[in-house]
Amino acid sequence: MSKHICNCEHCQHKLCAKNVPIFSLLDPEEIEKVVSLIVRRKYSKGEIIVLEGSSLGSLVIINKGRVKAFRHTYEGKEQILYIFSEGDFFGEKNLIINQKATYTVEALEDTNICMISKNDFQILLKEYPAISYKVMEELCNRLIRLENAVESMSIKNVEARISSVLLEFANKYGKPHSKGILVELPLSREGIANYIGLTRETVSRKMSLLQDEGIIEMVGNKKVIIVDKEALEDSINH
Questions:
Q1: Cβ-count burial of 10 within 10 angstroms (0-12 exposed, 13-18 middle, 19+ buried)?
Q2: PROSITE patterns recorded for this chain (predicted)?
Q3: Which of 75, 112, 160, 216 could pair covalently with 156 via S-S, beta carbons 3.0-4.6 A apart?
C-alpha cells in the first residue's frame, strides 16, 4: 500500500470515524477509541490500493475521494463491481473469514483512506455489537446491488440498464438543482460501460438519446442533470 501519510487536516482525526455509517451508533467516547486505532494513507488518481489475490490485513475506509473495485474477465475486459466513496469501506472479508482480496481497488481521484488493523477491528466488533449489525447491513445492500446487476445484464434492455445506473448515481451522489438532480458521475463513459456490461459507444449513444428526449441534460463529460426522474424509473419497469 502507499506510504504517503494522510494528515487529515480537514477531519482533525475524528471525522474519519464520525462519517462512517458502521460507526454511526457509537457515542463520542467510543468514537474517540475508534479514532485512536486509525492509520491514514493517501493515494493519487490511478494508483492501486489493493490487488486482487493479495492479503489485506486492515479494514479500509474511504475518508475522501472515490475508488473503483474491479476484476478482469477471461477476455481481459474490466468489470467494475463497486464504486466506493466517502464513508464506504472494504476489506471486511479478509478480517472476518481470512479471505484474500477478491477484487482490485484503484483510486478514481486523489483519495484519502483510514485503516483499522484486523486485530483492532475484531476487538471493536466484540466490544460494540452495533458495529457488526451495521457491517452486515451494508454487505446485504451490496449483495442486493450485485443481484440486481446480474438480473439487469440478463433480462433488462439497454435503456433500463442505463436508467438504473443513472438512478443509482443520483441516489448516492445527486444534489438538488433548479432543473432536477445534478449528478457528478464517478465514472467515465467507458467506466459506466464496464459497470453495467455494455460498450462505451452504446452508453454514449443512449445517453445522448435521453438528452434529446429531455430526460437528462449532460454537463460536460462528468456531470448529468436528471430532469425527469420518473421517466428513468418508468423505463426500468417497462
A1: exposed
A2: CNMP_BINDING_3, HTH_CRP_1, HTH_CRP_2
A3: 160
